[in-house]
């Protein structure tokens, strides 16, 4: 089996674009995927990576080959419905995301249990897995998982003054009720390109900006790609499902590992300007079976930081935790959220 690095080395600019392998799901849709790491038959652990908003199976999740061989890791990355080379799902829902993962794993014969790692908006499929297919999970990690303010278990006192809440509410309303106007707006020359987020520190901290220099960023969030109605529709539908009403409250879930044979991990940046760390701390307080890791100088692009991917894998596979990623109890929280310390979350949550 050729590894991605070999494919990149053996190809040239004149070569035709590679067509990824696909599986055909029971509803007739095709899901494209790519494999990395050790051969599946020789692996000790099989990990499915779930990409986020505007990304694809080609997302950067580079891990040292020595670690891959040491732990015997097989990676499966796939294009979620409508992304990349996968067919769209007109009936996309929170539940369908978990069922796509399960069917993909079954068709590729990953076995009765597998690991899942979701990044940013790719975390809502992970919550879905915890709800609908917990018996299939060997281990779970969510990296800077998005927050849905509609979850009923979030205390209003914690979210009332979060400036992100009204912004998400407005974007959701516009996307749901005026999709034509939204599509027209984001493709106009006078309208700031969505990809400008890659260049603005208002969205990312210092380490994020450094990471963006080494990654391709968000290729689907350019005006050129958004002019493609299929791309726009995929992003819109994904956003609406993620931030809409779910048929379950994640903070009422029970542990998928009742015998403590493993745990669920959340990785969060303290300086994340897109997802509030205060709410991630609240979730981990509500669900003690979640192991919470916090990167003191981390923003939203943790998965692209040197050393973080290795730490995530060692945590989920070996149960290791580095002291640098333990949340500090004496750090002050954002005054906009009217919380003064980590310990006060015990009161509001």
UniProtKB/TrEMBL annotation:
Name listed for the protein in its UniProt record: AB hydrolase-1 domain-containing protein
Q: Where is the AB hydrolase-1 domain?
A: 47-303
Species name = Gossypium tomentosum
| Classification via Pfam families | Abhydrolase_1
């Amino acid at each position: 089996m050729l590894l991605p690095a070999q494919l990149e080395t053996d190809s040239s600019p004149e070569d035709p674009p590679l067509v990824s392998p696909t599986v055909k799901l029971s509803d007739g849709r095709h899901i494209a995927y790519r494999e990395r790491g050790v051969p599946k038959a020789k692996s000790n652990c099989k990990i499915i990576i779930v990409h986020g908003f505007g990304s694809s199976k080609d997302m950067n999740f580079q891990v040292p080959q020595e670690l891959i061989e040491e732990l015997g890791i097989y990676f499966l990355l796939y294009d979620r419905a409508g992304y990349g080379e996968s067919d769209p799902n007109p009936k996309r829902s929170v539940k369908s995301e978990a069922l796509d993962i399960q069917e993909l794993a079954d068709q590729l014969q990953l076995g009765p249990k597998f690991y899942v790692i979701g990044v940013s908006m790719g975390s809502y499929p992970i919550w879905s897995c915890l709800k609908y297919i917990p018996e299939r999970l060997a281990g779970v990690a969510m990296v800077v998982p998005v927050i849905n303010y509609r979850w009923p278990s979030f205390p209003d006192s914690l979210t009332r003054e979060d400036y992100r809440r009204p912004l998400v509410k407005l974007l959701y309303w516009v996307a749901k009720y005026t999709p034509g106007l939204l599509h027209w707006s984001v493709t106009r020359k006078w309208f700031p390109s969505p990809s400008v987020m890659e260049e603005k520190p208002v969205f990312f901290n210092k380490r994020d900006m450094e990471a963006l220099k080494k990654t391709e960023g968000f290729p689907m969030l350019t005006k050129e790609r958004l002019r493609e109605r299929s791309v726009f529709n995929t992003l819109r539908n994904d956003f609406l499902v993620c931030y809409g009403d779910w048929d379950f409250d994640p903070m009422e879930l029970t542990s998928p590992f009742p015998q403590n044979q493993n745990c669920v991990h959340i990785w969060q940046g303290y300086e994340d300007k897109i997802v509030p760390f205060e709410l991630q701390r609240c979730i981990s307080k509500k669900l003690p079976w979640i192991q919470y890791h916090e990167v003191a100088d981390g923003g939203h692009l943790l998965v692209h930081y040197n050393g973080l991917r290795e730490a995530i894998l060692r945590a989920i596979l070996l149960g290791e935790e580095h002291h640098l990623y333990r949340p500090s109890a004496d750090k002050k929280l954002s005054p906009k959220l009217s919380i003064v310390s980590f310990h006060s979350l015990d009161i509001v949550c």
